[in-house]
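Thread: Modeling a multi-component assembly for a lab meeting

Hi all, long-time lurker, first post. My supervisor asked me to bring a structural picture of a complex we are working on to next week's group meeting, and I have zero experience with this. I have the sequence lines for every component (529 residues in total). Could someone generate the structure of the whole assembly? Inputs are pasted exactly as I received them:
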Amino acid sequence: MYDQTNALPPLPGVGYKPQHFIALMADPAPVGWLEIHAENYMGDGGRPLAQLRALAERFPISVHGVGLSIGGEGRLDPDHLARLKHLVGWLNPASFSEHLAWSTHDSHFLNDLLPLPYTDATLTRVADHIDEVHEVLGRRMLLENPSSYLAFAESTWSETDFLREVARRTGCGLLLDVNNVFVSATNLGYAPQAYIADYPLELVGEIHLAGHDEDQDDHGLPLLIDSHGSEVADPVWALLDLTLDQAGARPLLVEWDTDVPDWPVLAEEARRADRALARIAA
Amino acid sequence: MSAVSQDSFRAALLDASRPVPDGLLDGAGRPAGRRYAVYRNNVAVSLREALATGFPAIAKLLGDENFAHVAGLYLRQEQPGSPLMMMYGTGFPDFLAGFEPLGHLGYLADVARLELAMRRAYHAADAAPLDPARLQALDDDTLRAARFTLSPAVQVLRSPWPVLDVYRYTLTPGSPKPQATAQHVLIARPGFDPEPHLLPPGGAAFVAALMDGAPFGTALQAAGETFDLPATLGLLLQTGALTDLTH
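Re: Modeling a multi-component assembly
Sure thing. I ran the full set together rather than chain by chain. Output:
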C-alpha cells in the first residue's frame, strides 16, 4: 500500500538553514541531501518556498515535522495534517519523519517536544495517530526517538520495545537519533550501547546527529540538554560508529538549529559523517 | 502509580509556581526536580526567541531585560494557536497596547503591528506585478470604472504615531529622529523582501478602497481633496502592489 523504500541516499545530509543557501548551491560536497522542518515551509509564498523549490531540483529532500504532536492526548490537528499533505504532495520528498512526542494540548502549541509515558494506552494512541498520518499522506513515515530528561513512574515498556511495537503495528519506519540516545542514556543512567543493541536497527531509514549541552541535576548528576547548538560530541560519533557497524550505511543527518555557524563549520561536520560512512565501506 | 496527564504537565510548564507533577522521576526513581525545569525553560525560551525574531524593533526599543519580561508575560497568556511559528504573536500588539507599565510608549503597539505586517508580507503568496502599460492604455472613463487586484503581500497601517520613522530609527543606523506626526504606511513586497513605505495624504484611504474592490473612481473620491495620485500610483506600481485590473 505504501512505498516501503526510503529514497534518501546513504550519504551525509544537513538540516537546511536559509543562510547556507548560496554556499549549498555553489558547492554542497559532501552533502548529498537536505532536511527541512515542515512547519517553516507552510506559508503561502515568498523566499522560503522559492528556495525550497530550487533546492528540491538539486537535492533529495527529507521533510521533518516538528509540530504534529503524534503523542498528544487529543486528536491530530486536521488543519495541520492537511498542510502536511499539501507540502508532501507538491514537493514529493524522499522521506517524511516526525517525533515520538507531544507538543499541542487544547489547541495550544508549546513549541517543544514533550515526553510520553511508555504505557499500553500511549502505544495505542501513537499507533492510531501514525495510522492516520499514513492514510492522509499516502506514504510511510519514520518515527524519531526522543531525548529524555526524566522518566514516568507509570511506564511499563522500554523505549526500544515501545518503538519496535509501534513500528510492528503501523508499518512505520524509524529515525534513530544517536545524540538523543546518548542524551537520554546519560540522563536516565543506562548504557547507550545497550540501547543500540536492543534497538530494531533493521527499521532505520535515517540517522540524526547533533550537539548537546551539559548541565547538572539536583543531585549533581550530569544532565545533558539536546540543544542542537554545537559540534556533535565525540562519544556520539563513537556511538554512531557502533551503530553503523551493526546497521550498515544509512542516510546521516547533521542538525544544527541554534547559534547556526557559517557554512564551512557545518560542512566539516558533514565531512566527519562522510568519514564514518567511508569507514564501514572500507 | 500516578499517571501524569498532559493537562497537568502543560499547566505546570507555564506556571513555575506550581509543583512539578507527581510521577515524574530521574533515572534512579527519585522525583524529577529540576529535570522538569528543562521543559519549562525550553518552552519559555523558544517562544520568547520567536517573539524577539518576529518583533526585532520592539525587542530593541525595550532592551533585552524588559523585552524578556514582557514576552514572558505574553507567552504565558497566549501560546501559538498552531505549529506555524511564522504566525505566532498576532495578539502581541494588542497585548502591548493594554500593558499599563508601557503606557508612556504609546507608539509601541503600532510598531508591533508594522512588524507583524512585514512578517505577513514575507510569507504571502507570490504574485506577478501589473504591467504599467496596461494602465496607460486606458482612457479616463475606463480607468475610473476599472477595479484592481492587489498583491496578497499588500497591507496598510494607519497610525497616529510616526510609526515608520520610529521603526527605521530603531533598526536602521543613521535614520532621522522621529518627529511627532501621524503616519500611514504601505507594506508591499517587490520580489522577496517586504518594504514599508510612507503613504502621502489620502493614500491609505485610496489603497484601502482598492483593496475592498472599489472602482478606481470611487477610490479617488475616498482619498479626498489633498490626495497625491501620481505619487501613490507610482509607489503602488514600483512596489508590485498592483497585480491585475479588470474593466
